[in-house]
């Protein structure tokens, strides 16, 4: 104990940092416990059992002073044979009474040179509230007093420096090792590599490894772990291969980490080779390696092999169960995950918070948002308290579901349990309130955040921007800069998206220029936000113009860009361009994206190619609610109600819950086919059976359905009994029905409301004039026209267009006539002559002018639909259908003529009038003359 004698006064002179209440504690720093858990390769011999004198000392430990007194007595007696064992008792006593420096001094003197005791001492030191920094302080003070330390102690200090990221002290220790010309053993070299890896980067650590004279297994293992800890997956894997080439054996931890690298890199072949290595060296019993193998196969989408490894594991622990369950969840096999979860329970393995969080996050990622809330309730019933990860997953699910009240309840839970100070939870709360349109609450949470990260700023700026509150968004942007947080591309993209969604295209472009002026480059999200906004607001041509600019800057499109472009194609009915984009999807492997596939279904339906829409839908492996809705809508706009209802029934069989859009599509299909009873059934059941509350759009569909079926009085009664104020769409549906059935009296009631709600909508005036003309009330026609002119309202031109040989040919009531007009009329007269032989009689009621019948027939010939179809027949000879787009509702005469044309020329004709399609084939129309 001579080494300890000069240090006694040093120990006695220090006051303890914190006086803790004494308690009896079975120390983790027990020599017997440590010896039993350490490998046989330790550089020191295993300690001998404790002697009875140790316990005699412990009986006298009632206070810190008693510990010091007994320590002094031991030093004076100089009991060498008991000193090592009794020093351990004094270290524990000093720790228990809060004198951490004295405990550290004794450890440095008596035990630090033995690697067996490092972890146990640190564990006990931390248990009693000691800060590892105090150990470094003791080391520095001892070193300054001239105490010499060997390499074992310096390695121990390096380990603490690594843990605390104390770079300067670690560098001083390394300098000390060099200055004293120590021959570094493998443990010290490992400590140096660990220190440099954590504090200075892997390059410095690798340099230590390369400079080592002997590369034994411990050094190789440490070198690989240092690289893998820094996520240098490829470098770590390469070092492992080099290690194996030299026939150096890897330990279990290294193998497990290398398998993790194989999962991160998608290196399945290398992972299989390591699996072979594990089998060759009979390491399968190592549960750490088994768990890593399962994770590696899961990351490489080989869940079946992962399951085989799991099933062959005898001593399955909780991490092993968690790995296979998370694997099934990650790949979307939620039912299999629950089967394993239940099997785990029956195997007496109790799930932990990691298990529950895995279930929560997995169900959210795969769209099972309601199940997330059910899992949370089950988790709490099992006695588990949600942590930050649990809350974040639940808040994300609540956000997607739009359950604001649930979100507020979770917010209360967060506050009660002190989680509101967690940065991730607070940011998730801001995001939840923003996406549920509660910007006031979002701002309140944001204001209470002490440490705001850029995600919180971006979320709130995005919320204000998307709601059109650009002044508040700009103020936040400026405040963000003032607080020293630099806006990133996400910040500016949220502003671009908000401006685009609000039809502020110039401002959105200005924000893109601002991105460039800040030294950043607009990315695919910047341009896609602009293109998407244009597509949603009906600026379809601008969307394609921005696409060209985007491509000029060398930015490749993504799946969202493609979906937005397909939306533009659907808006303009550009089938050929839509097909080209479809080819682009296939070439770039976007076709598997459910959003792209849904956009393709919508595009083909609205461009007059329902057959291709069905093909895309049938090939879609994972059908979302949006894809089902798109297909139902596609059949509805063609008047194919039977097919639309059939898709709905299949959707219910697939356990997909319908929403408000589903019922709008269903009611539209019913109204286009006159299925009154079916329509009433769906309208009545949507709330009672499916929990969908009817909106103004659903009521508008029902008014249209009743009116088209001829129940005009019932339609008016229905309007008057609505729980909300009828809007222009509702009265417009009634007026259209009055026009179909010639009911002037009810038409005037509907028009009166429409003229108040939409005084500048020319379509309402035109409908009313048509209704008066049908009844030969020409004075009322003139009166309505005068009223329209007095309001300054003008009826826009009627146009139709057809695409021939990649060129669009427009036929309009205004502007220039078509250059081939003569040939078109010649062919049209010829067709009309042939039609009359088959019984065609011109429907002159479609002409709302007070002129002679002969003149009315001439006016009918000038209808743009007839001219566009005729030109298509002249200039196309292939069996491909003729597709004509019209901006107004087709008249009954044009409808009849189109049927005759399809019969006489044996050609399919698709004609879009407004929002629905007519498919003419062999003299019949898909609408069955109900439109």
UniProtKB/TrEMBL annotation:
Keywords: Repeat
GO terms (BP aspect): RNA modification
GO cellular component, as recorded: mitochondrion
Residue span(s) of domain DYW: 839-931
Top-rank lineage group of the source organism: Eukaryota
Repeat in keyword set: yes
Single GO MF annotation: RNA binding
Keyword Repeat applies: yes
Start and stop residues of the PPR repeats: 317-351, 352-386, 453-487, 488-522, 523-557, 624-658
Family statement drawn from the similarity comment of this UniProt entry: Belongs to the PPR family. PCMP-H subfamily. Belongs to the PPR family. PCMP-E subfamily.
NCBIfam families in alphabetical order: PPR
Name this polypeptide is given: Pentatricopeptide repeat-containing protein, mitochondrial
Organism for this UniProt entry: Nicotiana attenuata (Coyote tobacco)
Gene name linked to the record: PCMP-H65
């Amino acid at each position: 104990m001579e080494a300890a004698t000069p240090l006694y006064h040093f120990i006695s002179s220090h006051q303890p940092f914190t006086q803790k209440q004494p308690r009896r504690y079975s120390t983790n720093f027990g020599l017997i416990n440590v010896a039993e858990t350490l490998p046989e390769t330790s550089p020191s011999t295993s300690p001998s059992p404790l002697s009875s004198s140790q316990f005699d000392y412990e009986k006298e430990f009632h206070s810190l002073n008693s510990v010091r007194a007994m320590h002094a007595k031991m030093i004076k007696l100089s009991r060498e044979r008991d000193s090592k064992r009794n020093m351990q008792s004094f270290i524990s006593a000093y720790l228990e009474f809060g004198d951490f420096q004295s405990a550290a001094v004794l450890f440095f003197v008596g035990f630090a040179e033995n690697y067996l005791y490092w972890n146990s001492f640190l564990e006990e030191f931390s248990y009693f509230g000691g800060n590892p920094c105090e150990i470094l302080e003791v080391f520095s003070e001892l070193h300054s007093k001239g105490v010499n330390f060997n390499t074992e102690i310096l390695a121990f200090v390096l380990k603490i420096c690594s843990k605390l990221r104390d770079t300067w002290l670690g560098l001083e220790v390394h300098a000390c090792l060099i200055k004293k010309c120590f021959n570094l053993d493998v443990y010290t070299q490992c400590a140096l590599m660990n220190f440099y890896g954590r504090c200075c980067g892997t390059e410095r650590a690798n340099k230590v490894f390369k400079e080592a004279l002997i590369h034994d297994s411990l050094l190789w293992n440490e070198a690989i772990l240092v690289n893998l800890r820094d996520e240098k997956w490829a470098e770590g894997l390469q070092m492992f291969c080099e290690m194996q080439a030299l026939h150096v054996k890897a330990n279990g931890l290294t193998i497990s980490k290398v398998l993790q690298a194989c999962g991160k890199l998608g290196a399945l072949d290398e992972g299989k080779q390591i699996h072979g290595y594990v089998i060759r060296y009979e390491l399968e019993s190592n549960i750490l390696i088994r768990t890593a193998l399962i994770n590696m196969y899961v990351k490489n989408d080989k869940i079946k092999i992962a399951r085989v490894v799991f099933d062959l594991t005898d001593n399955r622990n909780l991490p092993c169960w968690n790995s296979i369950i998370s694997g099934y969840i990650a790949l979307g096999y939620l039912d299999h995950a629950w089967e394993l979860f239940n099997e785990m329970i029956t195997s007496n393995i109790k799930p932990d918070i990691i298990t529950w969080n895995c279930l929560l996050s997995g169900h959210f990622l795969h769209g099972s948002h309601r199940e997330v809330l059910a899992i949370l309730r089950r988790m709490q019933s099992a006695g588990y308290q949600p942590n930050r990860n649990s809350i974040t997953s639940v808040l994300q699910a609540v956000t997607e579901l739009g359950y604001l009240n649930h979100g507020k309840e979770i917010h209360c839970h967060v506050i009660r349990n002190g989680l509101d100070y967690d940065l991730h939870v607070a940011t998730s709360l801001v995001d939840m309130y923003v996406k549920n349109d509660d910007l006031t609450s979002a701002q309140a949470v944001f204001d209470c955040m002490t440490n705001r990260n850029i995600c919180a700023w971006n979320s709130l700026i995005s919320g204000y921007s998307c709601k059109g509150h650009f002044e508040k968004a700009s103020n936040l942007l400026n405040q963000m800069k003032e607080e020293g947080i630099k806006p990133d591309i996400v910040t500016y993209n949220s502003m671009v998206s908000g401006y685009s969604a609000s039809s502020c295209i110039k401002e959105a472009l200005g924000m893109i220029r601002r991105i460039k002026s800040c030294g950043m480059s607009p990315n695919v999200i910047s341009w896609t936000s602009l293109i998407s906004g244009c597509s949603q607001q009906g600026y379809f041509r601008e969307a394609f113009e921005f696409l060209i600019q985007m491509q000029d800057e060398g930015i490749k499109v993504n799946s969202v860009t493609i979906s937005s472009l397909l939306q533009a194609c659907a808006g303009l009915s550009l089938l050929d361009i839509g097909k080209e984009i479809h080819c682009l999807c296939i070439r770039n492997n976007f076709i598997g994206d459910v959003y792209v596939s849904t956009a393709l279904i919508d595009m083909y339906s609205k461009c007059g190619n329902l057959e291709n829409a069905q093909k895309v839908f049938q090939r879609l492996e994972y059908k979302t609610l949006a894809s089902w809705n798109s297909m139902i809508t596609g059949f509805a706009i063609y008047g194919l109600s039977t097919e639309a209802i059939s898709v709905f029934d299949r959707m219910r069989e697939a356990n997909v819950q319908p929403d408000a859009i589903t019922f709008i599509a269903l009611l539209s299909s019913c109204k286009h086919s006159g299925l009154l009873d079916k329509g009433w059934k769906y309208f009545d059941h949507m709330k009672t059976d499916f929990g969908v509350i009817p909106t103004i759009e659903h009521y508008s569909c029902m008014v249209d359905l009743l009116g088209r079926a001829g129940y005009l009085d019932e339609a008016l009664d229905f309007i008057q009994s609505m729980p909300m104020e009828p809007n222009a769409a509702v009265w417009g549906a009634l007026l259209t029905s009055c026009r179909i059935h010639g009911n002037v009296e009810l038409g005037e009631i509907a028009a009166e409301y429409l003229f108040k709600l939409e005084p500048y909508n020319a379509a309402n005036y035109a409908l009313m004039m048509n209704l008066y003309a049908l009844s030969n009330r020409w004075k009322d026609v003139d009166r309505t026209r005068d009223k329209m002119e007095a309001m300054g309202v003008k009826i826009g031109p009627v146009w139709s267009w057809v695409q021939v040989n990649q060129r669009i040919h427009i036929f309009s009531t205004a502007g220039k006539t078509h250059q081939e007009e003569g040939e078109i009329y010649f062919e049209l007269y010829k067709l009309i002559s042939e039609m009359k032989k088959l019984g065609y009689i011109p429907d002159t009621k479609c002409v709302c002018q007070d002129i002679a019948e002969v003149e009315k027939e001439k006016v009918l010939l000038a209808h743009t639909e007839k001219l566009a179809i005729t030109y298509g027949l002249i200039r196309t000879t292939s069996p491909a259908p003729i597709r004509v787009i019209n901006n107004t509702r087709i008249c009954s005469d044009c409808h009849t003529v189109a049927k005759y044309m399809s019969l006489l020329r044996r050609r399919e004709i698709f004609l879009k009038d407004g929002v629905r399609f007519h498919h003419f084939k062999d003299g019949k129309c898909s609408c069955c003359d109900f439109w």
